[in-house]
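Notebook p. 47: complex prediction with NAP.
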Amino acid sequence: MTQNALVTGADRGLGQGLTAGLLARGWQVFAGQYLPDWPELGQLKAQYPDLLHLVPLDVGSIESALAAAEAVASLTDRLDVIINNAGVASRTSRTPITEPQDYDEMHRLYNVNALGPLRVVEAFLPLVGSSEMKRLCFVSSEAGSIGQAQRTAWYAYCMSKAALNMGVKLMYNHLRPEGYTFRLYHPGWVRSYMGGKKNPDADLEPEVAAAYALPFFLDARADEDRLVLRDYLGREWPF
Ligand SMILES: NC(=O)c1ccc[n+]([C@@H]2O[C@H](COP(=O)([O-])OP(=O)(O)OC[C@H]3O[C@@H](n4cnc5c(N)ncnc54)[C@H](OP(=O)(O)O)[C@@H]3O)[C@@H](O)[C@H]2O)c1
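Predicted complex, structure tokens below:
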């Protein structure tokens, strides 16, 4: 039986790498498309016309999430895995507290990074509930770890990821007893497009970062009854 996944923010960066990696494993992928003019998903669609479905999805909007869920439900009655990957960072949000803060920008990051995955789970949960795996994956960041925080600014990004971690913990408390399984993940420093253009200084190409991430997202784990934030090297982070 073909397995089905939804990936948010699939146009480029890690999400595109995860989409390509899932397709190469024979999965059917519903790829959340936020940038219809960006070419990479179109190229993958030409390569995997039957397995890849492009679904318009802005995780910042519940209307968009519900419409995307309806579109996916018209094609399948089951999602085995959701990978909540979509996220935003911002250069201006690195301003220290001794300078004026950009509160609109903080709201934008919180809306996408912390609330976006909640909208996606709300909209798609019935489809995941029909599967055996019932797997909910969340791309967080070491930046959301309160226990290991070293930065002296980056308020918007760090606080949005810490809030995401709390949201995942609340979902875990509710849904783990119903059989859902959870993955909370820091992907490493990825040569992705956060900040608008590809960052060549980072450590990992998106496809390499995806190759690290997919076993963690897809494989069974002995410790399903403990929510952990793991990084791409398998290290556990306090959160
Ligand atoms: N890059 C790193 O080193 C790093 C480290 C730790 C964690 N992460 C996390 O990894 C995840 C993937 O990021 P990435 O590094 O691959 O960055 P990326 O290249 O910017 O990819 C993120 C994708 O999500 C899209 N997106 C933005 N807002 C969205 C929305 N409202 N709805 C749906 N999609 C939206 C982005 O579009 P735009 O390009 O238009 O914004 C982009 O296509 C994020 O959650 C990020 O926080 C990244």
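Notes: The helical segments are 13-24, 40-47, 62-73, 103-129, 155-175, 206-218. The mean pLDDT is 97.
Next step: compare against the earlier run before touching the bench.
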